[in-house]
Fold this protein.
Amino acid sequence: MSMRRPHHNLFKASLLVLLLALIVGCSSKNGNNAGSTNNGDAASPVAAAATKSGSSEKYKIGVAAQGLSHEFIKALIESMQSKADELAVELVVMDSQDKIETQLSQVDTLVAQKVDALILNSVDFVGSGPAVDKAKEAGIPVVEVITFTKNENYDVFVGTDPKQSGIMMGEFLAKALNGKGNVALLQGQIGHSAEITRGAGLKESLFDKYSDVKLVTEQTANWNRDEALRITEDWLQRFPELNAIAAQNDEMAMGALQAVEAAGRKDVIVAGIDGIPDALNAVKDGRLGSTILDNVTAEGKRAVEVAVGLIKGEKFDKKELVDYVPIDKSNVDQYLGK
């Protein structure tokens, strides 16, 4: 008996050591699980939002632009980028190339990237509307700039009242024509907010007001200089009695002017809208009758400021409007090079 007792004590001691090891191991594993749970809390939406609001991470603002082939829209994006750099925010710019479907798809992409705000330079008054709902459903604030949608679910519109520019163009042409003459209209992309409203302003201030001013033809050149050139070449053949061409933007006005000058038609007045450098120089030289300045630099910068403000929870008026400035040879020197 005495020979077996030491083995029995040894067995009990070994069993005790094993039990202690198991207890320590379980305790250690529970401690690791507790650490994982805390890490999970840190990655929760609330914690992520807290991190996002800190100064260590940039806000990301998505921009769906109408079309970067247009000089005016390029100037818009450049002004927005300048303000974004100043405010240390990131812009993700997408070129919709004047296509509704492309713009809607790009907004889907920006929403999937979880941008903090969306700036929409809409392609179409009606067709771009679903992009607004898509962003808002994802909790993303929406700023519309320059152009706007029929869908007013956006937060803020920054830009102008396009009808005002049409009215100003009509007033210039009425005076230049002495209230009598034949006018052709180069339209922007059909369905675009500026095409609709600029056309309404021109009709109100010119064709409805002066019975001796006739609209002899109208056609869309889709905001494009080359298209306007080709259309105007045809018009000059078909309508030899033409006295003026009203173009709903300066790109089209410059295309029309090129055709008019090539045909030697010094009797045809051309007017545009936007105040791009080419147009301002042409007004200075007496080649282009008038342009209407749309202060795209101020609008682009303000759109970014408003987007950042909305991210921070600031409040704004539904519309922040900038006035147009009619420009002819009498005041063009004030705006050249600006």
